[in-house]
Amino acid sequence: MTPVELSRTVMHAVRRAVDAGELNVTVPARAVVAPPGPGGCGDYATSIALQLARPAGQPSRRVAEVLRPYLVAADGITDVVLTGPGFLNISLHGTAPADLVAEILRHGPRYGHGHGRADGVGPESGRIVQLHCPHDLRAVVVAEAAARILRSQGALVRTSCTAPPEPEWTATLGVRVDAAGPAPAAPPVDVRPVPAPADPLRLGRDAGRWALLHPAAHDRPRIGDEHLVQRESNPLFRVRYAHARTRALSRNAADLGFAAEPGPVSGTAQDGTARELLVALADHPRVLAAAAEHRAPDRLARHLVTVADAALPFLPTVLPRGGEKPSAAHRARLALAEAVGAVLAGGLSLLGIDAPDHL
Length: 359
Description:
Strand content: 5-15%
Order of helices and strands: HEEHHEEHEHEHEEHHHHHH
Largest sheet: 4 strands, antiparallel
CATH class of the largest domain: Mainly Alpha
CATH superfamily of the largest domain: Isoleucyl-tRNA Synthetase, Domain 1
Structural class: alpha/beta
């Protein structure tokens, strides 16, 4: 069961509890599932009971107790444990990691993209999301990246700036907006990050965009040569290097005569570096949704660093060593590596940054 399928399963449990008269609530549009936090257990956790407690007029733990039997009875779920004020910690059958990898490979770089609700994303229901920014290079780059991420979640977006972007902004960083001039009559979403203290154009497209997008909007970005160095101290280098390594592994595996096939990566696929990596990949759709909701490309940029940092210790284990012959475990590890590549390529694309196959 994938995170998307599990979210649907949680919503089905809520509907069944409502139909049975055990909960008197309006069924929300979606249920967020994510890796368990501190004190949690299992494969995934959801705070849906805390979300429903107030409208249901019941303590959140009681709501969780109502939902638990419906979840335990669902196909693919082996156990549900209540923790804290009402978190539902869900354990899945052993195929969960393989299912996640298969889903990522099926969608490729579009993994985590949502069709969105028919009414759009967030409070702009039923309307085009209008992003408006001042005539400032960082503001234009952030607005454009936020628009890409919103569109990935199914929203209709229009970007505008108080004046047309400078020609060198477009030539170097590829920035564009849909319209220029005063803010539209309909209340727009103002995009006003802290301006950059120096001109980032000398860094080029990829490093320049990363320098402006990686910090949170309220943080002043650093515009220096640290974004150009090809070392592990540079987060952008780690992300792009991890992607390039996944592509190299696919080429090397083809030379050895085997291809990717999702499955257990080892005897203990839930442990160690593979477990950490699977958690980061499973969290990708949630991060994209949050980045869209808050118009915060920095959330996606930092998540890509998390994925890359979890992947780099794992990637050396993918290929057979010495006289070892390719096995099912190697094919599964290659599938996981290719899933990493898909997530990194898709995320960098949304930020307007290239994901090279060779680095």
